[in-house]
């Protein structure tokens, strides 16, 4: 046999060997693909971590802004500056209530509300009503368990029910649309536009609920508190006159007052301070309840109608009704809204005044905080209960409500709309509660302390719930 031929036959690969070499080159074994898959998984995990960190910054930024402006207000009200004095904060609050807040509410409603949106987004007012109802019930339960004073119960129910449906969604929702990997569509422009519309309607509807329901709660608490104060002063004056009359009678009888005190000592189980405090709180409350019970049905009905009309005449409520009318009537809207509107300057002027609402409210709250840290009478358990209701129980209720409404076909398929509905359950308390507390002179120091702790917790809680909501909707 020729050696050259044998060598050539050995060197030339068979068709089967060529096929195996081609298969190995095109489809490497799993061991060779493991590093590439590990790199891809690590990149995905890194992107998720970066997305969570970006979302954390986005959600916490408006909270940090509120806290920063509040610190500025606290400094202006302190002894170092003494700019925001008590009278200055009271006058500033009246301007916010009468001018800035109505301007903000009207400008938002007139610009964003349309008849088509009201029809297609009909569940949003129902959702907001559920947040107020659930928060009020939970707040009422907390008040009964913790035995809070009667004049603080309306305040606590307001903090548990009224969320910040205004500036926080306007900042958070559009910013979430700008993030990479959001579950609301790749077109950021469309997502941002829809998010602004949802948030604006949320702010407008929230303002309507706050300036009717929450306003009524705070007004009743203020009236009860001032009635109790006046009754306690009257009771203390009567008791002083009675003691002075007894002393005079004892002097006339020839027995010294000190000797009479020795014969009737105070019981050791009740301290004088506690006895006086109970007399100041319980006696006015009982007299107030008896006065309500003594009134007839028609008198109570007349008082209720009068109070309802009084609440409707509040400037923010009037602005809400006018804003809805302008937004729903096309020819009225064309007079004010739009580039070619003849009365465009009215809308721009109102918008300019409305932009000062949030900074002024936050400065006032910061100024009240300097007194609240020293004079607050709320227990720690009350603050903990408000935090748990707002950031634990209500978000869970919100997820259940939105999921059930979507399952029943009440909601459109837009995941951004469902995200806004769920976020409405996880927001910190509304800033306008502080305006009402200053207006009715009820629990101003307590309001500042509650705002401080709820907004500190909201920096983490709101971010966490936003991430959970997005993961559910993605």
TrEMBL record:
Its main location: endoplasmic reticulum. This is Uncharacterized protein. It is a multi-pass membrane protein. Keywords: Auxin signaling pathway, Membrane, Transmembrane, Transmembrane helix, Transport. The chain crosses the membrane at residues 57-83, 95-113, 119-143, 155-176, 196-218, 382-404, 416-437, 449-473. Belongs to the auxin efflux carrier (TC 2.A.69.2) family. It comes from Eragrostis curvula (weeping love grass). GO terms for biological process: auxin-activated signaling pathway; endoplasmic reticulum to cytosol auxin transport. The keyword Transport applies. Residues 242-254 have a biased composition (Basic and acidic residues). Residues 236-277 are annotated as: Disordered. Involved in cellular auxin homeostasis by regulating auxin metabolism. Regulates intracellular auxin accumulation at the endoplasmic reticulum and thus auxin availability for nuclear auxin signaling. It is found in: Endoplasmic reticulum membrane. Pfam families: Mem_trans. One of its GO terms (cellular component) is endoplasmic reticulum membrane. The keyword Transmembrane helix applies.
